Amino acid sequence: MSSAISPRILKQPDNDWPGYRLAVRDPLRLDCGIDFGPFTIAYQTYGKLNAERTNAILICHALTGDQYAADPHPISGNPGWWLTMVGPGLVLDTERYFLICANVLGGCMGTTGPKDIDPATGKPWALSFPVITVHDMVRAQKRLIEHLGIDTLFCVIGGSMGAMQVLQWTASYPQSVFAAVPIAGAARHSAQNIAFHEVGRQAIIADPDWCDGQYLEHDRSPARGLAVARMAAHITYLSEAALHRKFGRNLQDRNAVTYGFEADFQVESYLRHQGSTFVDRFDANSYLYITRAMDYFDLAAEHGGSLPAAFAGARSRFCIISFTSDWLFPTSESRELVHALNAVAANVSFVEIETDKGHDAFLLHEPELFTTLRGFLNGCAEHRGLARA
Amino acid sequence: MSRSAALEFGGIVPRPMMTPEERLRRDLRVIADMIEPGARVLDIGCGDGALLAYLVSEKGADARGVELSQSGVNACVGQGLSAIQGDADRDLDAYPKGAFDVVVLSQTLQATRQPRRVLETLVRIGERAIVSFPNFGYWRVRLSLLARGRMPVTPFLDHQWYDSPNIHLCTIRDFVALCDEIGIRIEKSVTLDRYGRPFALDPRGSLANFLAEQGVFVLTRGAA
What we know:
- The structure holds 2 protein chains of 2 kinds.
- Chain A is α/β, with parallel strands linked by helices.
- Chain A is about 35% helix and about 15% strand.
- An 8-stranded mixed β-sheet of chain A has the order 1-4-8-5-11-12-13-14, with helices on both faces. In chain A, strands 2-3 form a two-stranded antiparallel sheet. Chain A has a two-stranded parallel sheet with strand order 6-7.
- Chain B is α/β, with parallel strands linked by helices.
- Chain B has one domain (about 5-135, about 170-220): Rossmann fold, CATH 3.40.50.150.
């Protein structure tokens, strides 16, 4: 299987993809000390910016997400990853708000990442791409928001790694965020989460087609390693109860086990499908870089080890949301955030949603999540003086 | 506005049939009247947010809630109020001293694990604390126990002994004695009859302890 590259992500010329591109000329000082740039930010917008420029919401995507929150993915054709949330009359109402969603720095859907060409060498960056952090992603987003002429975002919202970006925004640019909604997030990546990421990275690195990261130059692709990484990670996004409800011990297109290593069980078949479709739309090196950024995330460490210190200047109205069956970013992590925000007497709401859908619940149909968020955003909109849609 | 009604409307809270003022329980009204306009308020045990909604809309307060039940918190946040899921025993320690002008603990003290510690925390994080609780010395409660020999069940103590969240019941006298012991100053007190109407009785007197169904106390940190 170690032959010519097949994943479409590595073949598709990304300027064919729909959406906007911002060419950032002034270099960005990254956490690793490098001045990075010029670079490109690929982003989508939905709805209209009002005349006062007060109705903008920045949507921050998760590890394997992208800017296509509410329109079809240009490679997979799948519907937008947050169609449950973004649209006319929905919680993130496109008739009331101006929504912005940008591919993160280091990503592979148009924002500059390791599969792009390093202008200094004319070759793909691969592992010479600088190691980026969540803070760097947010610095890049700030450039985009400035470019759009927006001083203060009405809201910054996101789940999982998106929640990390939301928190970073409130810590780094407290004046620029009116309301903040970190969903299924944490102020730092836990040891267990770093451990799972390391398993994924090692699966990629162990794939002979990875070629020390230079697979593009060798016209190869570590698809098997990336698929295994996705399979392992996908388990962490679900709950035991959800897996049981969906699959139980049901067999896949057969009446009995085969005494072999084919996908006898439906759950195996499902995971293999998740892995094989993922490699078509995601770059393996991007996966290494972005998981690393999440591992490095520790908001307290940036502020002398004190989480309340990170929020000392926070002025935003916070709505923190967790899910009962999320064991990757459990409620205890959100509660720690609440306590830190209480310590600086920030305006914070905290809701734990009862669900068996695990970490991925933020992407799914959760009526209680919608009710809560709609109420929170309506309350904030009133304080902000935004007209009803 | 009940929580279920909010959910039926897909989260769009309909124009309430009752004004926030009409929604307010009598005892909460007494508490609301003690709060200055524009105050920073923390309502602990805020339920579905009736007092919060009143304070925000009628008093322009910066009011936030803490509530144990998930349904209560969701109802609050769903109507645009600030509330966190938490309880008085565990989730107040993080607040800095004097974070609020007023901290309200209404009909909740008797359900905490460590009422003494909770009271000390209230006067630390609030410049003033307003605490209301059912008076176990109320004559109907006494009579019920005396005559029937069973644990009392009244409109304010509406649980059977085996499923009651009220694990630390006290009389008005007990409460006053505790405040004296831990150096908390009672700035003001109101006793309420069974209809929630205030009447003028000295809370330290035995008559109040006999006739009042509820006590409402305004507390501050002692001089020490």
